[in-house]
Structures are given as structure tokens and as C-alpha cells.
Specification:
five-stranded antiparallel β-sheet; 11 helices; alpha+beta; three-stranded antiparallel β-sheet
Length: 368
């Protein structure tokens, strides 16, 4: 998920009481919640390098074992350095720091796995992608619930209130101006903001009522966990119903089915059902009748033949295909005897993440 969600998760764990585990525990939680995203440097590797390399080595099982030790070692070194000038400070202890670092690090790939972008849990031993298909990659309800309790925990000073207010305005602009967000979700978002603001005006903050805020943070984490779990579990009956509807319509050899989450609407989903030759897409909504509305026409894969194989070998295409879950190919003839191959992913039919265009000459060699 997005860095804000990861940071809020680490902060909420600290506010719920883990910050008392040891000196520098809050730093361990915030760093651990974000550490695997050091692979963001892949964005500097050229076209589609980030798709090929992100959520891999730094997110996989080997890194998950190593990150807590790296973070703990760095914080112990920081602790020694700071106590040179402040020998009165309480000494940080390796055990508690390692424990909270482990918790924080594990939250990161778990959150990433929950969306339909994917996560490679087994790297570097196995490059398979895993998908939770439960939460949109930017989920405003995680922001609202966890950000709300952190606002209560850390808003004692006017400068803090101003900073949180700027965040609320920016997040609200995103929620209120995104066309796909339903009206009910926009109203609920504003009600939630008003509720946290009212609690703060009533004197609920980390300085005046620390125990109340700590309990609220624990409840918020449980609520977000329950929301995530229910979204995951709801996929099982939904996929079964999609499969049944398509089979009744005569669709055969149905393989993987995705019901991808939609922005700020936990009741809606984008459907992609894979067969040998095509993808059957549509819309899902738990409150609609019928719940599954198929698109009029499937998306042909067009994934065979020498032209496609030549396009796959192009560096940009091979990087894109490392990440692609439901790739499909569109071929056009170029005027010089060559070919233009457009590669997209059925998860993003509107090319939201951009596809790949490969130009081949008459000998099926990639052109610059």
C-alpha cells in the first residue's frame, strides 16, 4: 500500500502502547513499517524497472528475517551516540527493539499483499506474485481510522494541529474529487473527520488523556484488522458466484478470478476472470441485483505467435511482464512492413499504470 498507510500503521502501534517497550521503540516501529520500500530506488532504473524489481528482494522472506536485525543494530548505534552527550538517558535494549522491529516489518508486506498490485513473499527463492485483492492500493478508511487516532495522540501543540489539518485537507481533496468514489463514501469520510475533530475539541489528546488515546489506538488497529479480514474473506463467495454466472453463460475452462477493490467502496469490485484465450471482465457490487454485471465482450489475450514472442523479448516488455498478472496483446501493422505491439494488463484496462508499446521491424527485431 502507500507509504502513508505504512507510516500510520507503525505510528498506531506505537500509540497503542508499544512505544513504552523500550527507548527508540517508536523509531523502530516507524522505520520498520517502511523499511522494505527502500526498493523505491528501482524507479531510477529506467522504463518499467520499478514494476520488475519492486516488492521483491526487500519484501521477501529473506529480507523479512534480516530487516529487524538491521534496524535494531542501527538504533543501538544511535543510542550509544546520543548517550555520549546525554549519559542520563535510559539505555535502549536489543531484545525489545528487535521485537517491535519485527512486528513493524511484518506489517509492510502484509499490507502490500492486500491489494491487487501484488507481493512476492518468497523472494529471492521464488518470484511468484501473491494477491489479496482486498483493499485498494490507497485506502482512505485506513487513513481515516489510524490517522484519526494519531491526530488525537499527537496534537498537543498548535503546530501539530496545523500539520494534521493540512493532511486532512489533502486527503479530503483526493477522496472528494475522485470520480470513482461514491457519494455515500464521501459523506462518511466527512462525518469521520468531524468525529475526530469533535473528540479533540472535547479534550481527548495524548497529553491530557493518554490512557484513553492508547485504548483508542488499540481499538483502531483492531477495527482496521477486522475490515481487512472481512474484505479478504468476502472474496471467496464472490469469486464462486462470478464463476457460476460465467459457467451458466457457457464460458469454459475458467482459471484465476480477480475481484479487485475499488477506491473507497468496500462493496464494489472490478472482475477479471481468466480463460485459456481471453479475459472476461465486469463489475461486482454486493448491494446490487444482480451482484455481477459482465462486460459485453471478453478481452482476447492474443498471446501467441512469432510477433508476440518477439515483442516479449524487448527489454521494456520483459520488465512489464515480470509484474503483469493478466497480460494481453494488440498487434497493428506498421507502414514499413513492421509491427506495433501494445501490451496491457486486464487489471488496468484504462492503462492507469501504463502499458508497453513495442515496435518491431520487418525482421521482428525491436526498434528503439
Amino acid at each position: 500500500m502507500d507509504p502513508i498507510a505504512h507510516t500510520l500503521t507503525g505510528g498506531a502501534l506505537a500509540a497503542a502502547g508499544l512505544k513504552r517497550a523500550a527507548p527508540l521503540a517508536t523509531a523502530a516501529l516507524l522505520i520498520g513499517a517502511n523499511a522494505p520500500d527502500v526498493d523505491v530506488v528501482a524507479y531510477f532504473g529506467g522504463d518499467y524497472a520499478s514494476l520488475a524489481h519492486r516488492r521483491g528482494w526487500t519484501h521477501g522472506v529473506l529480507a523479512l528475517v534480516l530487516w529487524p536485525f538491521i534496524i535494531t543494530g542501527a538504533l543501538l548505534a544511535l543510542d550509544r551516540w546520543r548517550r555520549r552527550s546525554r549519559p542520563d538517558l535510559e539505555r535502549a535494549r536489543a531484545g525489545p527493539l528487535l521485537g517491535v522491529s519485527t512486528i513493524a516489518v511484518l506489517t509492510h508486506p502484509t499490507l502490500d499483499w492486500l491489494n491487487n498490485y501484488g507481493m512476492r513473499w518468497l523472494m529471492p527463492f521464488d518470484g511468484r506474485w501473491f494477491y489479496g485483492d482486498a483493499l485498494f492500493i490507497i485506502d482512505p478508511w485506513v487513513w481515516l481510522v489510524l490517522g484519526g487516532v494519531l491526530f488525537l495522540a499527537y496534537s498537543a501543540k498548535p503546530a501539530h494541529v496545523a500539520a494534521w489539518s493540512l493532511f486532512a485537507v489533502a486527503a479530503s481533496a483526493l477522496v472528494l474529487t475522485t470520480d470513482e468514489v461514491p457519494t455515500a463514501s464521501r459523506v462518511l469520510w466527512l462525518v469521520g473527520l468531524a468525529g475526530f475533530a469533535a473528540a479533540r475539541l472535547a479534550g481527548v489528546d495524548g497529553s491530557a488523556r493518554p490512557r484513553t488515546v492508547a485504548r483508542a489506538a488499540a481499538v483502531a488497529l483492531c477495527a482496521v484488522g477486522a475490515y481487512m479480514a472481512s474484505s479478504l474473506l468476502a472474496n471467496f463467495p464472490a469469486r464462486a458466484e462470478v464463476r457460476a454466472v460465467l459457467e451458466r453463460a457457457g464460458v469454459e475452462d475458467i482459471g484465476n478470478i480477480m475481484i479487485g477493490p475499488m477506491p473507497a467502496d468496500p462493496f464494489a469490485g472490478q472482475v477479471v476472470a481468466e480463460t485459456r484465450d481471453a479475459y472476461y471482465t465486469g463489475r461486482w457490487h454486493w448491494l446490487a441485483a444482480p451482484r455481477f454485471e459482465p462486460s459485453p465482450e471478453p478481452i482476447p489475450k492474443n498471446d501467441g505467435g512469432p510477433i508476440v514472442e518477439a515483442a516479449r523479448a524487448a527489454p521494456s516488455a520483459s520488465r512489464y511482464l515480470v509484474w503483469s498478472r493478466f497480460p494481453y496483446f494488440q498487434i497493428e501493422s506498421a507502414g514499413d512492413g513492421g509491427h506495433i505491439v501494445q501490451i496491457d494488463d486486464a487489471r488496468y484496462p484504462d492503462a492507469r499504470l501504463g502499458g508497453v508499446i513495442v515496435r518491431l521491424d520487418e525482421n521482428l527485431e525491436p526498434l528503439p
